[in-house]
Amino acid sequence: MQYQSLPLNSILKFLPFAFTFLLMFLGLSAAASADNRLALVIGNSGYKNSPLVNPTNDATLMTGTLKAAGFSVTRLIDADQRTMKRALLNFSRRLRETGAVGLFYFAGHAVQVRNKNYLIPLDANIRDESELDMEAIDVTAFLATMERSSNAFNIVILDACRNNPFRETFREPLDGLAKVEAPRGSFVAYSTSPGKVAYDGTKGNSPYTLALAKAISKPGLTIEQVFKQTRRDVLTATGEKQIPWENSSLTQEFYFMDKNRQIASKPSKSLPAVGSTFELTYWNSIKDSKSRTLFRSYLNKYPDGSFSPIAAEKVRSLTPN
């Protein structure tokens, strides 16, 4: 069989189409890589017993910071146990499906019992430490689930060592969190050293999250450099009373911001444009209500909604209903 070569003019005519196809392919590849970072951010402040001031603000700040760093973020404010467990399950499944870098951030109450750490949902009703497995979130179990996702690698950040709200009922009321070994391919960060208590903060955010958001926003820093910078800033802000701590099993470099990438704009405290007519209609129907349940419902439905900061403040300030 004989093959005929194409005339030069035919090749030249084909080149623009080939170039266009190449640009389309590169564009699709860039889009895919930009969506290769997933984050779940939870901030719990409105506990009935021992409420906290800043975790919801911290979650909002971290959400904006991570979005600027290319993460697709799911944010939950004042989440109960069912909401937290469902979100953690969905997050792990998405990591399994996409193979993306996963980041989990939690601000709120957490406790340690028998060298295990538990995150406390908003509706936790714990009368004895033996009830933790049923009422709270086992950090070790969640880390194991993330590890089984077989994704690129995972980052877990816990600004959750403020105090033990159940000291009076626990047999061994230990403060802070226990040291946990980072599973293979993961980076685990705590706002303070194992067994120590972190500060909630007096400037609208915890010293740790404020420092971490600042460090993440600096281009060209590896993940290790980000957390070293965070540690220096927290030591300065707390008079060296709080020492952030990390445990890592990463074997590759990771940058929140590469050297050529800048944050387009700082997270704004002003309200963004309304996401949809349905959201605006829903908000207008509840904005004058005195019911915390309605504002929680809004936050569950629109965790990144235009009015979520106001709704979170309503949840904190209104009396239980």
Can you describe this structure?
It is a single chain. With 321 residues, the chain is an alpha/beta fold. It folds into two domains: 37-263, Rossmann fold (3-Layer(aba) Sandwich); 270-321, no CATH class. Helices cover 40% and strands 14% of the residues. The chain contains ten helices and nine strands. The strands form two sheets. It has a six-stranded mixed β-sheet, with helices on both faces. Strand 4 and strand 5 (116-119) form a beta hairpin. Helix 2 packs parallel to helix 6, helix 6 runs antiparallel to helix 7 and helix 9 (292-301) packs antiparallel against helix 10. The protein starts with 7 loop residues before the first helix and ends with a helix.
Question: In summary, what is this structure?
Answer:
It contains 10 helices and 9 strands. The chain is an alpha/beta fold and 321 residues long.
Write the layout of secondary structure elements.
Elements: H1 8-34, E1 37-43, H2 55-68, E2 72-77, H3 81-98, E3 101-107, E4 110-113, E5 116-119, H4 132-135, E6 137-138, H5 139-147, E7 154-159, E8 186-190, H6 207-216, H7 223-237, E9 245-248, H8 277-286, H9 292-301, H10 308-317
Parallel strand pairs: 1-2, 1-3, 3-7, 7-8
Antiparallel strand pairs: 4-5, 5-6, 8-9
